[in-house]
Request: fold
Amino acid sequence: MLYSPRMLVGLWAGKTAIWLNRRIGHGGTSFPGGLGRRIAPGLLSALAAQLKRGAMVITGTNGKTTTSKMLAEMIAASKLTLTHNRAGANLVGGITAAFIESASIGGSIASDLGVIEVDEATIPQLVREVRPRGVVVTNFFRDQLDRFGELDKTVTLVEEALALLPPQSVAILNADDPLVASIGRRYRGRVFYFGIDDRSYGSREMTQSAETRFCRLCGHPLTYDWFFFGQLGHYRCVHCGFQRPQPKISVSAIELKGEEGSAFTVNAPRGSWRVELSTPGFYNIYNALAATAAALRLDLPEPSIRAGLQGYRTNFGRMERLELADGRRAFLALIKNPTGCDEVLRTLAQNRGPKRLLVIINDNAADGRDISWLWDADFEALAPILPELRSVSTSGLRGEDMALRLHYAGVPAEAISYEPDIHQAIAAALEMSRPEETLYILPTYTALLESKTALANLGHSPRYWEE
Reply:
C-alpha cells in the first residue's frame, strides 16, 4: 500500500485522468501514467513491488502485444489475478497507467502477476523500476529507424537491460534469431531458449530480406541450414562456433490452416501436447511459443497453458478477425516494418478467395517518420492473387506514397483508389464488401488506433480500452 501523500496524489491524479479521457472518448493509455509520474516519480516502482509473484516483461520488435496477451490468457486460465498493459501502450507512461488503473484508491495492488509489454528503448528504465522475474525477447528487426537508428543499437539496449536483472531472474530468448541468441552468449544469468524445429515451413534458401547475415560475436558470415523468415532459422558460424542454441521448448508437426489458424505440437521439459491456435499466420506460432516458454518459467500448469492458447482470440489489430453481416468478414493486421509486413502479406496470399485490401499508412512519431521501409516490404507477393482482389485502396497521411508503392508492385494504377480520411476509407471499403468476401485492413500504429475508432463507431468493434 502507498502511504506517502505524494504517491497517493500521483495515483489519484492518474486515475482521474483515465476517467476523464474515457468520458470524452479517448483510451487514456499514456497521459495518465505520465501525469502520475510527474507528481510521484517512484509511483511505478511502488506499485509493481506489490505483485505477489512478480512480473514478466515481453520485448522485441514484432509480437510483443500478441505474446503478452497469450500469456495473460494462460494466467487467467490458471485462476491467477493480473496487472497488464493490455491496450499495448508500451512506453513507461502507458505501463504506469496500467498499474494506476489496477491499483485501489488507497494504492494497493492485489494482483498475483504482472505481464508488461515494453518498447525496446524503454526496457532499461523499466527493469530498473520493476525488477521483473523474467524478460522475453521475441526478435529483432528494423523498426522506426528515425528513432532507433541502427539495429545494433536496439540489440545493445536490450542487452544492457538484461544485465540489470536481479540474479534470480531469467532471460527467455528466441533461439532462431541470431541477434537475440547472441545476447544469451553474453548474459551471465539464467537463459531459457525457445525455437521451431519443424522444417515443413520455410526453405533452404533466403527468400526474404534479412536483418543480418553476419555473426554478431565475430562479424563473419553465418551459414544457414534452414530459413523460416527474415534472419530466423537454423544457423551457425564456422569461424567462432556460435550457433543456434538447442531450445528447451520447441514446436513440431506444424499444420497451417489459413484463416482458421494452425495446429502444432509443443515439446517442453514436462512433455509434449497438441495445440489448436485460431490465430492465423506462421509468425503467430512464434508468439505462442514465446508465451508458453514464459508460462513454464512462471510455473503455470500445462492444462492452463493449453487452455490459454486454444482460448486466445486475436484482438487490437493483430490479425484481428471481425465478423460482419451477410457472411462478410474483415481482418485488421498491424504493419510497421518490412519483415512483419511480409508475414502479413504471406498470410493474406495463402488465404484464397475473393478479397479486398485497404492499406493505411501514417508517419506520426509513434509510427516512425521514415517510411522508406515500404520499399523493402514485399508487396510484390500480391501479384499471384491480383485476380482475387476485388478492390485495392489506400488511406492515411502517406496513403499516396502507399498507392505509388502498390503500383510499382504490379497493381494497375487505375485499380487503386485513395481516400485521405481514414474513417471514410474504412466505411467505403466495408460498404463495397460483399458476402463471402474478406476485407483486409493493414494500418500502421496510429492508423490502427484511428481504424479501431472508426470500426467502433460503425458498430463492428469495441473501443480498444474496452477489449
The longest helix spans residues 5-23. The first strand starts at residue 55 and ends at 59.
